[in-house]
Amino acid sequence: MKISNQQLKLLVQDLDLIPVEKLEDAYQEAEREKKPLASVLVGKDLISDSNIGRVIADYMEFEFVDLEQTPIDEEAMAIIPELMAKKQKVIPFGRNQDGVKVAMVNPGNLNIINLIEKKIGQDVLPYYTTEQSLESALTKYQKGIQAEFSQIIKENINEAKAGARAEDLPVVKIVDTIVQYAYENKASDIHIEPTDEGTLIRFRLDGILHDIITLPKDIHDLVVTRIKILSKLRTDEHRSAQDGKFQMKIENERFDLRVSIIPIVEGEKVVIRLLSSKSRQFGLEDLGMSTADMIKLKKEYTKPWGMVVVTGPTGAGKTTTLYSIIKILNRREVNISTVEDPVEYDLDGINQIQVNPKANLTFANGLRSILRQDPDIIMVGEIRDQETADLAISAAMTGHLVLTTLHTNDAPTALPRLLKMGGEPFLLASTINIVMAQRLVRKICKHCIVSETTNPTELKKKFSASLVDQYFGTEEKTIRIYHGKGCSVCGNTGYHGRLGIFEVMPITETLRELIMQRVDADQIRDQAKKEGMKTMIEDGISKVLAGLTTIEEVLRATRE
User: Superfamily for 291-442+498-536?
Assistant: First the structure.
């Protein structure tokens, strides 16, 4: 039993989940390219994969299971071999006295249900799941990285030392395995570091680096050379930094990997950034923005001109926020151009320019070129100098909406920073619509979340008294906070996924007057708070009390 694109369109339309115009555009694209409407809707970030899954499951009258958020019983999973699970798009994920719980893309497939029941002598309890959810769960069939590396190294290390044809070397398998394991675990970066003991492989998961495995020191140079070959870099250069990129295909997705190699004392260190669109949602709701802040932001980015400035350190999710705004604004009648360093994700219907200093294509020169291309909306990846700042302000004044980022610790500091770059107070005051600062914090794992009651006195034993008094009050009262115990879903960390904490500061008339007076960031902050701005740490504490993250995470992110 499958749902047709037409049926799903009518169902989503009746539920009023997506604007009619965007739903119709997605339906036409699905029909034209012969794709499932569900995958098009998710791909355009009009709805999350789990939400569309629940809609389809309700229509089919089956229970929905999100396998990315559900612990999978390995004994139950072993009932069906991996090849059969992939071919039939099914996976057993649990077992009880009533039978075996089986997640299926087509839960009405009686043939496969009867086959499993005959094999195990138990009833099958079918659940509906999406293809994306199923693909995520199928990675559970993979062997552990320790076992896989050990086997590769044991069988082939001697062959690698002796020298064989490139395609036969185990280093090819080692690099492929590192990347595949990182992809399956949704790592954002791979670090390959030479040490005295060997080659340390580390993954950045949910913003935190984790040690994965140490490989024999003998093969470090082979691994680095393999990555250089893939990235089309010089293999004979060992004393200078090199940057490059290459592509890989895993399952049904082809994605980019950005490579940076630098010489350090022990050898060459490699960092690989995985640019996988599958692992990233671009909806503002997915970023964790509160409804009140979304209303403020929407009011400013829907204006036909002006500047929207997002601030924060590297890795705070600034580009993701700008991408989510662009995807909302992207319509056929609008010309959107970007200049980025680097272009992290390809966006359909957007003209994206990659900064290339060697070809004299800087942010400023790229922005200057864009302005001759009749744009309506411009995204400048980052304002780094006065020339780029002047051009961005000029573009905002002449009827363009400009989206950009800046490296400052909070929203109020962005204004003095732009003034120091040489921006004129009058021009800044009249062009900037809104400034938003953000950080990323790890979310508490839903599957092992536990709560505890505490009070201000107990909190002061772990955190500063002034912080507790400011954000939890001085009155003795019961406070409920949450944390994760650690389970198989979150790798025993207690955290799974990330969300943003935000500081949203619309530029009001009062703030414009302060900008004109060249006041410092503290005075701007005080006035913005009087007008209702919630600081990042306040937004974080509200998410702590809602059970989304922990106090430790909020302090880690806001004090970095």
Answer: P-loop containing nucleotide triphosphate hydrolases (3.40.50.300)
Domain ranges of the chain: 5-136, 142-277, 291-442+498-536
* Contact call for residues 160 and 219 (beta carbons, < 8 A): yes
For the stretch 210-268, pLDDT in tens is 888 888 888 899 999 999 999 999 999 999 999 998 989 887 778 889 999 999 999 99
Q: What is the signed CA dihedral for 103, 104, 109, 113, rounded to 10 degrees?
A: -30
Q: Using one digit for the tens of pLDDT, what is the confidence trace for 418-454?
A: 999 988 999 999 999 999 999 999 999 888 899 989 8
The H-assigned helical ranges of 317-410 are: 318-329, 363-370, 386-397
Q: How many angstroms separate the first and last alpha carbons of the chain?
A: 52
Find, among 42, 50, 77, the residue nearest to 66 by Cα.
50
Match 């990182």 to its residue by tokens. 182
Take residue 478 and report the two structure tokens written for it.
Answer: 């019961």
Per-residue b/e over 161-176, b at no fewer than 16 CB within 10 Å? eeeeeeeebbbbbbbe
Nearest-angstrom CA–CA distance, 438 and 312: 6
- Give the tokens for residue 231: 């990235």
Q: Tell me the C-alpha distance between 327 and 310, whole Å.
A: 16
d(C-alpha 242, C-alpha 261), whole Å: 5
Q: Which residues contact 427 (CB under 8 A, 6 or more apart)?
A: 393, 397
Assign 162 a pLDDT band (cuts: 50, 70, 90): low
Which pTM was predicted? 0.74
The count of C-alpha atoms lying within 13 angstroms of the C-alpha of 312, restricted to the half-sphere facing its C-beta, is 25
What are the DSSP E strand ranges found in 185-234?
189-194, 199-205, 208-215
CB-CB contact of 528 with 518 (8 Å): no
Q: Which residues are CB-neighbours of 157 under 8 A, at least 6 positions away?
A: 170, 216, 218, 219
- The Cα 430–Cα 396 span in angstroms is 9
Q: What is the mean pLDDT of residues 329-351?
A: 87
Q: What would the pLDDT profile of 265-307 be if each residue is shown by its tens digit?
A: 999 999 999 987 655 555 677 788 888 999 999 999 999 999 9
CB burial class (10 A; 0-12, 13-18, 19+) of residue 240?
exposed
What is the CATH number that goes with domain 5-136?
3.30.300.160
**Tokens 């979304």 label which residue?**
294
CA 509-511-517 angle, to 5 degrees, is: 110
Tell me what pLDDT residue 279 has.
54
DSSP state of 124: E
The class level of CATH for 142-277 reads alpha beta
Residue with tokens 């040490």: 195
